[in-house]
Amino acid sequence: MEAPLRIRAAHWTDKDLVTPLIADALQSSPLAAWLVPDPQQRRQVLTGVVGIWVEHAMVFGDIHLTEDHAAATVGFHRYRPIPPPANYPIRLTDAAGSHADRFDLLDSLLSVKQPTEPHYHLAFLAVRPDAQKAGRGTALLAYHRSRLNRIDLPAWTATPAGGEHLLARYGYTPRPPITLPDGPTLRPMRRTAHHSSSAMPVNPSRPVDNRWQECHA
What we know:
This protein has helices spanning about 15-25, 30-35, 40-60, 90-95, 100-115, 135-150, 165-170; strands at about 5-10, 60-65, 70-80, 120-125, 155-160, 170-175, 180, 185-190.
């Protein structure tokens, strides 16, 4: 019988594992092609921008990794609005160059759809391309669901078209889609809190942010 996949919280030293994992998972997606049309620049730009948000999640959220470092989730605890990453406009321009406006537009379109109530924001669910279709994504979502049930907090995410079915299995329901200008469609999804007497209390004093990290691979 195959042993269950182990999942652990990422540490600061893991950020250099998580960032390229997410960039590799996103690279061939229609969303990545829209964000960075030039295929020669795409991976470098994605790595630079994703790295900003991975670092931010280490402070204002959490990251979980499979033990083989082939898949990860990145999320933010949005008990109230969080500050953006330090010097974000400058860092985004440095990372994305002429493509920065696409990331800004994506952020603007998604921020309109994001809940204002306290919630957990599942920003990335990524599986390395050579490790896909082997149960890692479902294992991470099952782990994610158990954590949400313990803290009794609603959750929100946005996924490229086609990703709704997997998320629906873990309690997410679709909201009206977002179609990017001359680009792909994204589907915001929300998960209602499952009220439980054993849920951990939410700490409303802890802050959290609202920019580009809404995509799944």
